[in-house]
Amino acid sequence: MSNFRPINRDMDFLMPPSVDEWLPQRHLARFVVEVVEGLDLRAMTSSYRGSGEASYHPRLLVGLIIYGYATGVFSSRNLERATHDSVAFRFIAANEHPDHDTIATFRRRFLKQIEALFVQVLGVAREMGVLKLGTVALDGTKIHASASRHSALSYEHASKIEAQLKAEVADLLGKAEAADQTEIPDGTQIPEELARREKRLAEIARAKAVIEARAKERHTRERAEYEARLAVREAKTAETGKKPRGRVPQPPVEGPLPSDQVNLTDEESRIMPVAGNGFEQCYNAQAVVAADSLLVVATNVVQAPNDKQQLEPMLDKIAELPAALGKIDELLADNGYFSEGNVNACAAAGIEPVIAMGREAHHPSLAERFAEDPTPPKDPTPVASMRHRLQTKEGKKRYALRKQTPEPVFGIIKSVLGFRQFLLRGLDKVRGEWSLVTMAWNMKRMFALAEAN
After folding, report:
1. Where do the domains of the chain lie, and which CATH numbers do they carry?
2. CB-based burial, 165-189: b 16+ in 10 Å, e otherwise
């Protein structure tokens, strides 16, 4: 005798009349709606004309997008589908179903305004008592661009294709002129073939112009660095009367290199090294994370794969935070951010830097582990002071916080939420999207911290 529950898909169910009753009281969707309700969205609402067909309120669409990023639903088509399939998305959308074009247009139109909500959300976190500044950690992570590295075109290859296309255009023009005297292959449409090659030539010319402009910027930067290094050597020679050791700086090469590339899909992205010794078309996403709460307090996206030049711009981002959020006293960062200039910049900003000055051994000896703290130097420079601090037990303990601060945030964003590639293209747009991603992470984290308290 079978003992199965009956299957009856035609049975009528009496559903709760209100969408509010469909969702548990303690739910992330409710929290997102509550936070968004308290945000100032006048920069968005004031741009609507108020005529024509009634629009979806920005609060509904902002809540829908933020909750989507917080739960791993990023594309506008999947967000539209979720308003039908998911109770939580139905709740946020108030049982409405904005189509994907509406969602995509809203995100694209108000990306800057959504980005500006980042600080407002931090203010909410401060009011909730879950955001405490003091010690923060800075790190970066490579995130794939919305472009394949196979769409990249090098200056050398572009020149070869350009020469080939010009030769083909000349050949086609010759055939067109002699069309009355000679036969051409069946199916050959000379005007169409010419138009196709002319279009391709225009694309290559634009790509070469971008590479040449970048090469000019690089030469200006490298020329300034070369002259600075040369001046330092000359000053040492004048001071000591001896020629300094080391190689004499070589002047930079002017013009584009054969290997210089531009991506035809997203020309502002760059080829960058990624984990596993490979190279991909990426952006370098930066984040400052509060050690006590793992909330992201400042973000940026850059085109440089190296982090050395990113510390000072992030200090500027920190300086722009409202005083009401609190004061940052200590900044942790790995060896990729170390330079004398970066340490001095932290000291000038009134922030104690704890930046690794080199790679540390994974298994220090017993003598190193239990050695007494060294004597502090007299009248130290900021670098000497930081070096001494890193050699103390307290300094090592503080630096150890770095590994457990930004890295888990990046890991969750990439592996749990599934955000491994930007949807938008262009540096300004991916900066806005990175702010959106980290703001969604902050809301998810705020909800977890509030529930824990």
Report:
1. 19-109 (no CATH), 131-148+270-424 (3.30.420), 152-263 (no CATH)
2. beebbeebeeeeeeeeeeeeeeeee
**Contact (Cβ atoms closer than 8 angstroms) between residue 172 and residue 197:** yes
Kindly state the tokens that stand for 235: 């000053």
**Cα separation of 408 and 329, whole Å?**
22
Q: Mean pLDDT throughout 49-67?
A: 87
Tell me the residue length of the chain: 453
Q: Which two tokens stand for residue 407?
A: 């890295």
Q: What is the mean pLDDT of the chain?
A: 86
Pairing of strands 270-274, 278-290: antiparallel
Q: By 3-state DSSP, what share of the chain in percent is helix, strand and coil, each rounded to 5?
A: 55, 10, 35
If we measure between CA atoms, which residue out of 233, 228, 167, 169 comes closest to residue 198? 169
Structure tokens at 442: 């902050």
- Phi and psi, residue 73, nearest 5°: -110, 105
Q: How far apart are CA 311 and CA 307, in angstroms?
A: 7
Six-digit token string for 203 = 């694309």
CA Rg, the chain, in Å? 29
Beta bridge partners of 139: 287
> What secondary structure letter does DSSP report for 414?
I
Instruction: Give, as one character, the DSSP assignment of residue 370.
Output: T
Cα-based distances in Å from 345 to 167, 237, 260, 333, 383:
55, 28, 32, 14, 11
**Phi, psi dihedrals of residue 314, rounded to the nearest 5°:** -70, -30
For residues 300 and 305, what is the distance between their CA atoms, to the nearest angstrom?
13
3-state secondary structure at position 279: strand
Q: How many CA atoms lie within 13 A of 111 on its CB side?
A: 19
Which pTM value belongs to this model?
A: 0.83
CA 89-80-438 angle, 5° bins = 65
Q: And the tokens for 430?
A: 């991916």
In the structure encoding, which two tokens stand for residue 236, read together?
């040492």
Tens-digit pLDDT profile for residues 83-140? 999 999 999 998 899 999 999 999 999 999 999 999 999 999 999 999 999 999 999 9
Q: Where are the alpha helices (DSSP H) in 269-372?
A: 311-319, 340-348, 366-369
Alpha helices in 129-189 (DSSP H): 155-177
